[in-house]
Structure formats: structure tokens, C-alpha cells
Amino acid sequence: MNESIETYPSYDDLKRSFFDGTIYQASDDELRRAILGLTRHAETNEYIRHHYIIMSNAIQSIQLDRVLHELEKRNSRTQKLVIVVALATLCAAVVNIFVSLID
User: Fold this and answer.
1) Which tens digits make up the pLDDT trace of 63-100?
2) Nearest CA among 40, 38, 39, 47 for reference residue 18
3) Neighbour tally for 13: CB within 10 Å
4) Where exactly are the structural domains of the chain?
């Protein structure tokens, strides 16, 4: 990752995006660059250093929420597939019982 510091959003840009809510529409790559920018910037001002930490935690929370949402969608698909397989197995068992009764 040989990205220069200019590719990261500035503190003011991030502050604005949090204020107007556009941070929630940011792409995963934009969020990653924001986290990297916040963690690589050595802020020496104790009065605003906690802002960097809070912003980093909030961005990571957004990323985690997206991952969990994607996992929930995958889990729903898997659950539906398991139900279909279970119903098919049940139908096969019922057919097998009827076939054995007919013979």
C-alpha cells in the first residue's frame, strides 16, 4: 500500500461527512482510506485527538454493520436452501414409505 497522504480525506472533510450523514453512503474503499488517514495522521493536539479515535470507531462500526448485513443475507439464503433440502428429504421418505406399502 504505497498510497500518499494526499489520497486520504482530511479531518475537515471527515467531520463534514459525519455532520451531513454522507459517511453512511461512502464506499468501502472510501471508508478504508478514511480509517487509514485517521490512523496514520499523528495528531499531537490533545483537545482533538479523541475526535480521531471516535471517528475511527464510528467508521469501523459502519464497516462492521455492512459485513453483518451481508452475512445475514447469506445466512437467509443458506437457511432457505436447508429448508428446501429438508422438505425434499421428507418427500422422498414419504414416497419411499408409500412404495414399500404398495409392494
Assistant:
1) 999 999 999 999 999 999 999 999 999 999 999 999 98
2) 38
3) 13
4) 5-73
